[in-house]
Amino acid sequence: MKIGIIGYGKMGKAIEKISINKGYKIIFKINSKNLSELNKTNVSKCDVIIEFSNPKNAFKNISFCLKLGARVISGTTGWTQKLEEAKKICLERSAAFLFSENFSLGLNIFLESVQKIASDSNKNKFKIEITETHHISKKDKPSGTALLIEDKILSMQNARPTKIKSIRRGNVIGDHEIKYIYENEIISLKHRALNRDIFAKGAILAAEFIRNKKGIFHMSDIIKN
Asked: What is the DSSP string of 139-159?
């Protein structure tokens, strides 16, 4: 598989390393110093584009590739006010697009448990709290994953969680905890990322999944597959 990487930070480097170990070829690695390499010729050489840039440039990067009919994986958060527009471009250009706030397979299984407990707790009016903790350089707050968790809960019940608490400290890769609080008891559910490779492996798995496909996809499609 031939891969183009947009965003060559920690995630981009992890994706490159794992891709090469799997025998895949990296066509380009885009950062702020070589933006001119993100062009029609290079994109056309790729089976899949994997985008982990920043909230400011994500939509521009994604839409450029989708308009060329490319297959795009994106894990950049903080830009989703334009997500529906990106999906529209994808469908209009017969491209393929999979966006996820979190590419960890474990986290996506965790979300299924969140929904199940939220559905049951709604009957007993549990109060719900979400806490997310990340490294100090993470820009968006709350995290995209915390907002995704909130959306999953909302799909099961009408009331929003009481609050989302965001913590930024050290080099924490990503902790997410949900507490269901009712009278004298608490149900606590937590996911902790121990290594950034879990996100890179999930993104590559997503790339393998959409390689020969067209349309809009989600991580749940991969879990079911």
From this structure: -SSS-HHHHHHHHHHHTT-SS
Structure pTM? 0.82
**Catalytic (active site) residue 134:** yes
Catalytic residue among 134, 176, 191, 201: 134
> Which domains are seen in the chain, by residue range?
2-99+197-224 (3.40.50.720), 105-193 (3.30.360.10)
Give the active site residue among 82, 116, 138, 224.
Answer: 138
Read off the pLDDT of residues 104-143 as tens digits, 9 standing for 90 and up: 989 988 988 888 887 776 666 778 899 999 999 888 889 9
